[in-house]
UniProtKB/TrEMBL annotation:
UniProt xrefs under PANTHER family: MALTODEXTRIN IMPORT ATP-BINDING PROTEIN MSMX, OSMOPROTECTIVE COMPOUNDS UPTAKE ATP-BINDING PROTEIN GGTA
Top-rank taxon: Bacteria
Keyword annotations of the record: ATP-binding, Nucleotide-binding, Transport
Entries under InterPro entries matching the protein: AAA+_ATPase, ABC_transporter-like_ATP-bd, ABC_transporter-like_CS, ABC_transpr_MalK/UgpC-like, Mo/tungstate-bd_C_term_dom, NA-bd_OB-fold, OB_MalK-like, P-loop_NTPase
GO MF entry, a single one: ATP binding
Protein name (record): ABC transporter ATP-binding protein
PROSITE patterns: ABC_TRANSPORTER_1 (PS00211), ABC_TRANSPORTER_2 (PS50893)
Organism encoding this protein: Streptomyces spinosisporus
Ranges where the ABC transporter domain occurs: 4-240
One Pfam family it belongs to: OB_MalK
Length: 359
């Protein structure tokens, strides 16, 4: 069942004396019941504005928002039954954790005192807050505040859950634990969820599907594997992946290869017209240092890491360095000559002008 649907959703901010800002330019999305969708994109691409429109905290310039098949666009925020956990937690400092959780429930009519207490206790147990129900926000760690914020969004049993950069204020260790907990809680409770993030790792590890956004437009929607393995355009290819994909500009030769320099010609995964300007994309892990075949390259740098190494190579006459993931056992010397090969099945070729993937 489609639980949340956005149809051609738009937002233009207009303020006197300033040019209008088209923050969201016609978004279409459909989330299945229980699905977790990651809305991923750089700062300023319109993620928060989209989230705020769904929550009813921002007016809509065009399009529609449907929850469970019904348009909610004319309903105020409190009548939408959408839970939001904000990046900055938005907890009430004078209230205890229990009071913070109860606050949203009490504001609703028809909730008896006993019901409120039962629901607070239930959600506190789920989100592991039982020991800190009497504490006040100031005394909590960032991870605990994040959980209270999540619990407050969940306690109202929302139809849709919106998470705004939920892990961004946590340190690396807390982030890993909280990420796993978040996934478990979302799975257990089965909420249809949009998670807004600029952090690709967060999106790749948590989301069932990811929508990659740029300049108010969704560039691609797909599972984490689809986004990673088959990026629809240069932006998605470049934005997702760490270390970033190698993007090498070239011109297609008469024998169907991309000419990166006089001496470096790369085979392409699909037939492309001669003379076309392209950008070949190869992920660092899809390149290998080989004994014989492969392109001659010079080692510029090699960073040995725990699980793998990152080698930076120079290809003859090619301006951009090539980044290659090596095995942890590999030892390379500065200026050493090596050969590097790309698996053609795993390379991508994009039109240099439009940035679109050529299939
Ligand atoms: P993100 O969440 O992806 O960082 P936002 O949704 O916050 O992006 O912002 C999208 C665009 O809309 C940006 O260019 C931002 O400057 C602009 N914007 C956001 N809120 C307002 C506002 N209240 N008035 C004018 N412009 C805004």
């Amino acid at each position: 069942m489609t639980e949340l649907e956005l149809r051609d959703l738009r937002k233009t901010f207009r303020s006197r004396g300033r040019p209008p800002v088209d923050a969201v330019r016609g978004i279409d999305l459909a989330l299945r019941s229980g699905e977790l969708l990651g809305l991923l994109g750089p700062s300023g691409c319109g993620k928060s504005t989209t989230l705020r429109m769904i929550a009813g905290l921002e007016s809509v310039s065009g399009g529609d928002i449907l929850v469970g098949g019904t348009s909610v666009i004319d309903r105020p925020a409190q009548a939408r039954n959408i839970g939001v956990a904000f990046e900055n937690y938005a907890l009430y400092p004078p209230l205890t954790v229990a009071e913070n959780l109860a606050f949203g429930l009490k504001a609703r009519r028809g909730n008896a005192r006993g019901d409120v207490q039962r629901k607070v206790a239930e959600i506190a147990d789920r989100v592991d807050l039982t020991g800190i129900l009497d504490a006040r926000p100031a005394g909590l760690s960032s991870g605990q505040k994040q959980r209270v914020s999540l619990a407050r969004a969940l306690v109202r049993e929302p139809d849709v859950l919106l998470l705004d950069e939920p892990l961004s204020h946590l340190d690396a260790a807390q982030r890993d634990t909280t990420r796993r907990e978040l996934k478990r809680i979302q799975r257990d409770l089965g909420h249809t969820t949009i998670l807004v993030t600029h952090d690709q790792e967060e999106a790749l590890s948590l989301a069932d599907r990811i929508a990659v956004m740029k300049d108010g437009v969704i560039q691609q929607i797909g599972t984490p594997y689809e986004i990673y393995d088959s990026p629809a355009n240069l932006f998605v290819a470049d934005f997702v992946g760490e270390p970033a994909i190698n993007l090498l500009p070239g011109t297609v030769t008469d024998d169907g290869r991309a000419r990166l320099s006089d001496s470096v010609h790369l085979a392409l995964p699909v037939p492309v017209t001669q003379g076309r300007e392209v950008v070949v994309g190869v992920r660092p892990e899809d390149l290998s240092l080989t004994g014989e075949d492969g392109l001659p390259a010079r080692v510029v740098a090699h960073e040995p890491l725990l699980e793998a190494g990152v080698a930076t190579l120079a290809l003859d006459g090619v301006e951009r360095p090539l980044v290659v993931l090596t095995g942890p056992e590999v030892r390379l010397a500065h200026d050493e000559q090596v050969r590097v090969a790309a698996d053609t099945r795993l390379t991508h070729v994009f039109d240099a002008e439009t940035g679109e993937l050529l299939r």
